[in-house]
Amino acid sequence: MANYFVTGVDNQEYGPVSTEDLRKWIAEGRVDAVSKVRLEGTTEWIPVSTVPELAGVTKTAAPPPFSANTPASVGKISALAITSLVLGVLGLFTCGTTALIGLILGIIALVKVSNSQGALRGKGLAISGIVVSGVFIFMIPIFMALFLPALAAAKGKAQQINCMNNEKQLALAVLVYSQGKGNHLPPAATWCDAIQANAGSDKLFKCPAADATSRCDYAFNAKLDGLDLGKVNPETVLIFESDAGWNAHGGSEMLVQRHRVHFTVVAFVDGHTEVVSDARLQSLRWNP
User: Fold this and answer.
1) What distance, in Å, lies between the first and last C-alpha atoms of the chain?
2) Do 181 and 266 belong together in one domain?
3) Which residues constitute the domain of residue 128?
4) What gap in Å lies between CA 173 and CA 195, rounded to an integer?
5) Taken in order 89, 95, 98, 104, is the CA torsion positive or negative?
6) Under 8 Å between Cβ of 232 and 218
7) 286 in a domain, yes or no?
8) 288 domain-assigned
9) Same domain (yes/no): 141, 165
10) pLDDT, tens digit (0-9, with 9 covering 90-100), for 169-188
């Protein structure tokens, strides 16, 4: 059965409808002999009176009171237009990432609605989707500028906590070593080798913020070389961050250079660790 599109008095296109529906509309006075129709799949508009199946029923029909308010003739809303707007709004919660898809779908929806000759509605939704998506895409650099520093700070904090845990475990390994050596601290020149077995893992010698190629990122206070632990002030520096490598030992001159993302982490003879600011580094106790 052939289907047709009908042009109403408001110059809007409605349909497709079957010839049986057109017969009913003619009987109801909504379509007359001069109403324009187009066969589905074609582009030519012709009077209803020239349609063979309808020629006999259009002679007495009244002029058509066709309008956009006729329920049977209203086109459906474009799903792409709705999706575009939704994805654009979601860009607020996804830092603009969904807005890019929303912009593309909005453009496609706008083209399809414009070319549908009334079969699709939602032009306003499509435009809204394009505008909202465009705004959030424009805001992506702003989101990046706001969130990247926070992410960097969070990463630095995580590295700092990891580094503190490493030094705490190394300080504990030193104390365990001392207990087995008559309460004497390890020799400074070979302190990494001395406590390696007690540390349990070589990963403890690595700072997460340091060069990955280095075997050890900490140094031992050289002034504690082989001393009796009971005669050393517990607030004395024991282990600290350094770039000097495996078995590194010395004093404040061996402190890590300022290329890392956090302050210097220091472990003390009593086993506790601290994050020490640059201003306080020079006031630390190095002499036992």
Assistant:
1) 103
2) yes
3) 76-146
4) 6
5) positive
6) no
7) no
8) no
9) no
10) 999 999 999 999 999 999 99
